[in-house]
Task: structure prediction
Amino acid sequence: MAQALLFSLIAAGLLVGALWAFRPGSGWYWRGQTQLEMTDRVRTEDAVKHIHLSNLRGLQPTLESLAGALQVTGNEAATVAQSLTQFGLAELRDGQLHLQPRGVEAALHIIRVHRLWEQHLAEGTSVSEGEWHAQADRIEHQLSPQEADKLAAQMGNPLRDPHGDPIPSHAGSLRPQDGLPLSSVAVNQSCRIVHIEDEPVAIFSQIVASGLQPEMELRVLENSARRVRVWADGCEHVLAPLLAANVAVRPVEVLAQEVAQRPLSDLEPGQASRVVSISHACRGLERRRLLDLGLLPGTMVYAELRSPSGDPTAYRIRDTLIALRRTQAQWVRVE
Result:
């Protein structure tokens, strides 16, 4: 009797477990299936994005390059390519992948969402620059075209992302990327940065750490096999040639009038100076806060007193006393 009861309890437990695992929509099995479908969809979307971006850069996408972009084996890349063909997104000819119109449309949507989200993070949040790309890589698979249009409208339909890349329009058009590598610019040539390549991430991080940003104007001081030195944002920047090759610039006739600059943080109590600019490296909420505090070009700033610990420092702007930490005051360039 006890044994029969035990068997009944085990059977009941197995039945409840099966119902729990296979219940429609939220059971373990169905969640696993949904995750599998999501993974397949993400790989498909990443694949069309890779093919389209390769074409834009003048490269020929192959199964090998697709495997590298998706971080999968060659066999898995071949499976993805076969799926693209079955869904009418791409075709494989002579060992090279070519997008069909549907594939181009899908790729442009993914690229549009990615770049819009990076612009949102740069201008509307305090998320660090090093996190923009990874977050956009996730969000690009989640927003619908309608949600992307709403996001774009909220930001005033920006034309470029924070790296200078053109953002595809609602209609699916994409302006060509212009500019030439900084590594090819002659000494004493004046330029404006139009784009900073955000991949590979390791190289992008080093460029960001150097302080260079899109829209900065610069003058080349040295261009050798060892290094590229430029004057930008009131100070000197040094890049390895490999890094400089990932910075696209457009020559300009003459730089805006060069004024000897220093960071506001260099002012000692009792000193005063006039604001020249806020560094292009200062973005989003932090930049908005400095502007709201009145740190506009031409404004006189007086360093009044400094904390006994050395940070923060109190500055007077138009009869208003404000406190800025050294890391904040370094963004403000003064004469």
